[in-house]
Write the structure tokens for this entry.
Amino acid sequence: MDSSAPNSFAPPPPGLNYIEAIRPSVTMLMIGSVWSAVLVPLLCVLFFFSTKDLRRKPIFILNVCSILLGIAMGLLNGVKAILTPLVPQPESNFITFASLVVAIPIFVESILVLRLMAVYPWKTTPLATHLAIFTPLFLLKIARVTNAIVFIVQYKSLAQGVNNPIASGQKSWRTEPGQKIEWFLQVVDNSVTSGLFLLRLQGGKKLAGMSGRVQSGSKLSSYSRRLKGLFWISVSNFVFPVFLSLCQLIFIFRDPDYLKGTYIFLTNDYVEIVGVLLATVWQAGTHWADDNSAPRSTVSSLPTVRFRSAATSREQTGANSIASMPTRVDDASEIAMDKIYPQRSEEKMAISWPGKNSASAKAI
């Protein structure tokens, strides 16, 4: 082997320079395309399991809007950068993309507040408790919206005259505090919301344990299934975004690379959208299963009853009227009928001992 070979490789041919031009956007393009592809079948599943009543509710409409925003963010993520990598992107493109990236978490977490309001309903929750829960969350949302508006205005001023979104993003990563403030508020917001949700879930488990002594097995198992569903809702909607938000804070303080933090930020946006969507799909699927299984469960839960002619029961009296009424198999119903119709017990006595009451025996 020739020892005089250079330590550095020769530059690639001019045609391969496109790879270097699109390399920073490839990872973001993969994140946006994969997650956007996941949202499409989930949207179809949501419409399949939803009912007319559910489609009129605000949480369903907001879920559909969040899915459309996620798909739009995936389309703006890097399509033009891949199709025309050497053409400078207009300023409006990456300002719109940055606005979506910042606004989607606030919008999706507002849906989580609606879900939390369903766990703490207005009618059954005391007013003081309701205000203590939702006033801090409302103030956090106002602070996050204000910070997002300030960040977009500052980002727009940084992007003026710069046709590279990565360069403008790296500059804002180093100099602007808006991202740090937003992610810190996001951690606080998600932590408070998840804590309140899990606290309510723990109270539901205690209630299920106390009521399990008197409830039937079917009712208790149905309540347990709903508690498990609420647990997975809390994990997907609250816990995962908290962990990813902590990762964002670690990257923005420890790593100067703008792209790594942006990858986690994009992933967190889509995780929140998918988590809220899965919770709504689970709720819609539960209602759909209940509606489809309700006729079968109602029929199977009816007691065994033998009916006789209803027309003759209105005309006859005495023993014939009693004989024409429904005859239940269980002993509790027999005792109840004896209390309502005292003559029925006397007639039964006559049947058992005809010698003691021959007149009643002849009447029967």
Summary: The beta strands are 305-306, 327-328. The chain has two domains: 23-289, 309-363. The mean pLDDT is 70.
